[in-house]
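thread from #wetlab-drylab

HS: before we spend reagent money on co-crystallization trials with adenosine-5'-triphosphate, can we at least see a predicted complex? here's what I'd submit
DV: go for it
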Amino acid sequence: MPNGTSSASPRRPWMATAIWGWRLELFLSFGTFLVLAVSTSLGSSGPLLVAAAMVLVLRQRPEIRRQLLHHVRINRDHRRLHAALWNCMVIGRNGSIPKVVRSAVLPVGQRYLLELPIGLHAQLLERSALELAAALGAREVRVKASPVNTRYVELAVIRSNAFPNVLRSPLVDRIEVSLWEPLTFGVGQDGLAISIGLPEHNLLIGGEPGSGKSVALSTIVAASALDPSVHLTLLDGKHVELVAWTDVADEFVGANQDEAVEVLEELRTIMDLRYETLAATRKRKMVSTDVEGLHVLVIDELAFYLRGGKKETRELFAELLRDLVSRGRAAGIIVIAATQKPSHEIVPTWIRDLFSFRLAMRCTSSDASDTILGQGWAAQGFSAASIDPATRGVGYLLAEGGVPTLIMTPYLSDDEIEVIADRAFEQRHSA
Ligand SMILES: Nc1ncnc2c1ncn2[C@@H]1O[C@H](COP(=O)(O)OP(=O)(O)OP(=O)(O)O)[C@@H](O)[C@H]1O
Ligand SMILES: [Mg+2]
């Protein structure tokens, strides 16, 4: 027995499983038969009339048809899962397989909450994941232990690739957003949207050239721009990545270290003033109802400002950045920075370690991935070096969940950026 979970030879209860697995179909067939049998009392044409009425109802009421089909499909998927669990010998000590407590249809497959019989646990199930995927004819099977009760596991059966060539941004259709609300930052491998809450967090994005850092930044800048209460400060070492947002930004700095330092000094003054106001009103942090609004500092090509140029300028820049990242949280200041390689020679560790959220886009090595996500993640199987170089915009996001999640960020074309920037400009003026 692959799982080594039972000493007794388990016998699959064929009859009971078959009846239980086909219960919906049996109920529907029996119900139809009963109705037709009763309808003979209406005369010889009774069954024909009742059958015609049933067909008519199903034709006229597509929602009933859809519901029936949905349940029939769910039942079929459950039967397949049960068969796969038996065939792969995922069996507990009492000779039974895990029980499906809940199931949901994912955009790319199915997700089940399973209650495990005695003798099984998440790690044992994980060992059978590949075998289960093959038995189910799926692309992948993922197992996640319930964080609150180890008797339960979440099993995702992934049937298709959740990451398209290009993921359309939902922001293209949005008139206004609130950055205090969770921001949809991409989709996960199960095809479901992944959101992050930016207030009180800072985000560091790293990855090899062309991996999609600036594209990921554009989602955050677009969302910030569409919130008229948000102040935007943009620093762009390449000048061309964020220049489209100049009209909606309070400050825009291109490849100029001195100007960048000036802007950070202004931002530090703003931060200090906000703390004075908070202290005067005996509050500890800003909240969504405060009129000042969040202040988002976005830095693309962070390495440009921390390397080269005059020593005292880059040291001042580093110190200002450290101050903003470490003290900005309660004052509503959010720092989002992107750089190719945040190694300690480029981004001092005393700054890097302050970023609570990390996004590691494709990297050339597991070491580089660990530099972004933090030591030890690659050894646990979360390495951005394993990302297919052909799929741009995919990365491991380490945010609210506490464990890196593979996500794909949406892509905003130059035209879409222009449309959003114009809309944001109008919104801000009317506000
Ligand atoms: N999420 C995405 N969806 C689709 N294509 C993407 C995505 N992200 C990036 N790309 C493609 O990859 C290209 C490079 O992306 P981007 O400019 O964001 O890379 P980068 O990591 O900022 O590179 P560099 O370090 O050179 O600045 C884009 O022009 C686009 O064609
Ligand atoms: Mg870039």
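DV: Residues 170-430 form a domain with the Rossmann fold fold (CATH 3.40.50.300).
HS: ok that's useful, forwarding to the group
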